[in-house]
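Notebook B, p. 112. Complex prediction, attempt 2.
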Amino acid sequence: MEYVTLFISAVIVNNFVLTKFLGLCIFFGVSKNLSASIGMGMAVTSVMTLSSMLAWVVYNFVLVPLNLTFMTTAVFVLLIASFVQLLEMVIKKQAPALYNMWGIYLLLIATNCVVLAVPLLNAESSFSFLKSVVYAVGSGLGFALAIILMASLREKLRLADVPKPLEGLGIAFILAGMLALAFTGFSGMITL
Amino acid sequence: MKNLWDIFKKGLIVENPIFVLALSLCPALAVTASAITALTMGLSVMFVITANNVVVSLTRKLVNPKVRVPVYITSIATIVTLVQLLLQAFAPELYKALGIYLALIVVFAIILARAEVFASKNSVIPSFFDGLGMGAGFTLALLLIGCVRELLGAGSIFGIPVIGDWYDPALIMILPAGGFILIGYLVGGFKMLTEYMEKAEAKKGDR
């Protein structure tokens, strides 16, 4: 039960994009079209899950025993960036079809706040391994949900008559605000 | 001297990191529910960006271009850790309020972008001013958002009530949704401002 609430909280109640403002660069950059945002959502979810596992192992078996927790930020950034590079190479070689689908998104998320935030939050709240994984999967799916919703909205926006200065980024922000307002309705549903 | 001022100045409006370049938006929303956290965040970023520009500029001839990005990231991560430890020691409350966003300065696109675009090609002093200007532009943008949100959402600035009791605070401004909407309008406003300035400039040229 504990895991279910953690999962739902990560997907909806504490949605990373709309209540914690993480991953906004990708969120606004990629949400212009729907298929790209589905690819991005998948890429972020899988990278987030894998890097959280890796970061959990490094944090609990290397940094904590050696009393090096003050270096967490630096270690995690380098760890994730190099891991994503490696993942990109492996996928390119082993699964070219998959690479064609979302290979380009991988490099974009190598140093990204949303991917770095999950391992950091896991370390901060000293989650167990399983809990970290559940949290990472939930956060990734929450990100995917937000970006897919946003892309669908923005595709409709092409038909709308937007005031000139607000075209592009301006209206995208206002739209995200409305979406965030809708998600505010979930707040307080689960308290962790 | 004029050149250095120009380098400093462009970060403020023409290339404002938040409103014009739209880089590093995450902190612009996350820590701007009150003016004081916005200011701390802005100053931290200003420090990191300036220090990193100096480091990158100093080492630009030693670093092989092929490994430059990992080197930049290491340098940024070191400086950010420094800021984290300093804030934790001297301003523990602010450190707590900024929370995870302080550690996330490491991955702010604006810092890496300045290292790549400017500091890796210029000498130390221009790089220093570039970092300072970009940092100042970032701080100003954050402070503006922070002040407006705190004013409308709580009726105060820096925790000091400025509007009387008659004002019923609009809670939405402190919530995430208000932040998004406000930035949307500010981006639009900035676009109008820069267009107006360009037109004025063009008129001057005609004469």
